[in-house]
Amino acid sequence: MNTVHYLNNSMKLALIHRKTINTMTAVVSVMGGKLQAYKMIVIFFISIHLILQLLSPLHAQQVYSASTLHNAASRSQTIQHIFYQRWDNMQNNFCYFDAYVNVNWVFDFDVNAYNRGTGETEAVPMKLVRTFSSMLLALPVYTPRDVTTNDYQQSPQTDITNATGALPIKKSWKKNSVLLGLSVCGYHYGLTRTVEISRGSAGSETASDYVFSQFFDDIAALTLIIVPHITIHCGVIFNQQIEPNDDGTLDYNFDPSKTAKRLLTSLSLFNAITWESTAASNQLEATDISVNITQFISIVKTTPQYMPAIIIGYKQFKKYNDEDYDPVWVKNEKLLGDSSRDSATLYSYYATVRKNIDNFYMAASIQLQHVDQTLIDKRTLETIDIPVLQMWSMKAGYDFLHKPGWDFFVWLGVTHWYDPAISFHSNHNNNNVTGWFAMMDIASPLFTFTLKGSYNDSYELEKLVESVDKYIIEGSASFRL
User: Fold this and answer.
1) CA 444, CA 449: separation in Å to the nearest integer?
2) How far is CA 207 from the centre of its chain?
3) DSSP string covering 12-78, please?
4) Global pTM?
5) Other C-beta atoms within 10 Å of 324: how many?
6) CA 339 to CA 268: how far, in whole Å?
7) Are 154 and 172 in contact (CB under 8 A)?
8) Could you read off the pLDDT of 173-202 as tens digits, one per residue?
9) Tell me: the pLDDT tens digits for 383-409?
10) Strand partners, 279
């Protein structure tokens, strides 16, 4: 599937940024004089993005082949990440039920399609829509009797690098309680096209529908929680790609013979040491090991209040496998008809520091990388020099409510990401890109709502590198008990 990416000219880009700054600063200004500092933060982050855009080359039409969409291994990492996030949210808030839905729109995702009438290939305006939904249930199977106040679990420090940092909303689970969890999750990737239909004298109307290949990833999992000692997840990931019929229609039938399966497992001890893995075809495909140093210390002693939360981790992912959608060859070039395949593993080493001062939250992350094999650029056939730095990010947020069960967060962040496929999917001269995101997060005892906008956010690029130089809007909501 070939796609065409284009952005507006520099004048329109500058106008967008100017309107964005005016709008956001006006919103902040009306909230009172004490928020003038946050007005300056808004201007600071958006000004950085504007400067980065003006220093970068303008992105004309760029033809490339989709990669991550066809990579079931990469998509599996995406759905697992959200799955673990939802369970972390459940445990941090001591909930027994969580229903969650998320919709993500990637704009300017155009596709080169063959026009049978003209016999030419034309760029067709598209929009990528990604939808995720999940339902989690935690069933108490054993609860100790005759417990004291000290026998209740204390809420672990929420990971504000990926979550809101909200305060717990319910009475904590009793220590040594046993809960059994059931989970079902689904993620759908689909390209949509909007066309105008003429009704003659009656006017015209527009219609939108999914076209081209559709991608589905699902998880069915069991969870065992022994409070607060152990959390175990074990489940199956189902990956399916549905191709359109000759007439362009799609048959949404679940075909086990065309569905790839992967096994996910996770073990967490005291919410401090976590091991996650994914296996496919009887071999380990990905591993992630992390240690929450602050939480680990708190097991044996009380940590000082001024101490930030510190997380370090290591992960490995068999990312490059000489597939058609990969931007690189592993070890050497593979000629047409060559059935041999080599694999390269990406090793990442990361650290996160986070701290809140009253209602103000801050977090910073860095991730280093190493690839165990030589990578060859498929376009130039030159060896790629992989930099040590893969990612960095900084974010700041303010909670305007900060009450148990009630939160109203506003987040702003700047990120940086490296991927050898970035220059494939844009006109960037290198494979590094810096971006930003802004997010609003509202939480109540029963419902949550999140709205996020981003451009070249490292979190989005890690999920789907084709989203480089594209604006993304995301909305999500949840119901919990």
Assistant:
1) 9
2) 29
3) HHHHHHHHHHHHHHHHHHTT-GGGHHHHHHHHHHHHHHHHHHHHSPP---EEEE--GGG-HHHHHHH
4) 0.81
5) 8
6) 40
7) yes
8) 999 999 999 999 999 998 887 777 777 777
9) 999 999 999 999 999 999 988 779 999
10) 263, 284
